[in-house]
Structure to design on (85 residues):
């Protein structure tokens, strides 16, 4: 059994309103940064998973994303898995 590190990014679907992102985008003008637009806010998750190999670890991370970490109706996710050193 090996230990793998997963890095997961969960973001709102592109076609959905992101109220936090919109508020931050609006605040950029007040901070003198009007050239910053289109802010989208999500979450970044890291975790460790014990698995026989990288493919098995990826399968477990995919399952965790689908079942708990991302609301697939409103969010999309992407992840990478690397062997821990």
């Amino acid at each position: 059994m090996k230990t793998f590190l997963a890095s997961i990014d969960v973001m709102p679907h592109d076609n959905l309103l992101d109220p936090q992102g919109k508020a931050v985008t609006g605040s950029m003008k007040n901070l003198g940064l009007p050239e910053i637009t289109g802010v989208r806010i999500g979450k970044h998750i890291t975790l460790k998973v014990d698995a026989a190999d990288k493919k098995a670890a990826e399968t477990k991370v995919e399952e965790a994303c689908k079942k708990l970490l991302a609301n697939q109706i409103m969010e999309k996710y992407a992840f990478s898995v690397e062997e821990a050193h």
Strands lie at 2-12, 43-51, 75-83.
